[in-house]
Amino acid sequence: MLNSNVLRKRSATLVIAFFLAAFAISQAEANKSGALPPGKGRDLVVGTCTLCHSASIILQNRMTREAWDETITWMQEEQGLWELEAADRKTILDYLASRQGVEHKIKKDSGKRTNSMYEFDYKPNPL
User: Fold this and answer.
1) C-alpha pair distances (Å), 35 with each of 23, 31, 44, 84, 89
2) Would you say 36 and 46 are in contact if contact means Cβ atoms under 8 Å apart?
């Protein structure tokens, strides 16, 4: 028979493990949509895109509608993304172009971009 100290330690360990698992699950669910801005098509983007990668990948990129379209085509040809229905593809592109387009948050003093497909909005390195 186990003494009461061992039982208390095991109970405490199980309670801590339960709360850590619950926290990890809630964080994973929150990270699926990340901080994607609200808007028409957001749920479709989350449901389609975050099956393969986190929303952080989307948030790190700023592209034109054409570049987003090329990226989706690349994902379909090279990464196994299924063929999207025309209406769904349009909704996703509308959302990405309006919320993660190049015209958003590009500073006037940021200089000329060298890669026309991707537009990044990284904070300058403070070093």
Assistant:
1) 18, 8, 15, 24, 21
2) yes
* pLDDT digits 0-9 by tens, 66-81: 999 999 999 999 999 9
The structure's pTM equals: 0.59
What tokens appear for 105 in the block? Answer: 């948050």
- What residue segments make up the domains of the chain, in order of their start? 34-120
Residues 41, 92: contact at Cβ < 8 Å?
yes
Q: What is the mean pLDDT of the chain?
A: 79
Question: What are residue 61's phi and psi, to 5 degrees?
Answer: -115, 145
| Structure-token pair, residue 28 | 């994973």
Q: 3-state SS of the chain?
A: CCCHHHHHHHHHHHHHHHHHHHHHHHHHHHHHHCCCCCCCCHHHHHHHHCCCCCHHHHHCEECCHHHHHHHHHHHHHHCCCCCCCHHHHHHHHHHHHHHCCCCCCCCCCCCCCCCCCCEECCCCCCC
**What is the C-alpha separation between 10 and 121, in angstroms, rounded?**
48
CA–CA distance, 42 with 49 (Å, rounded to integer): 10
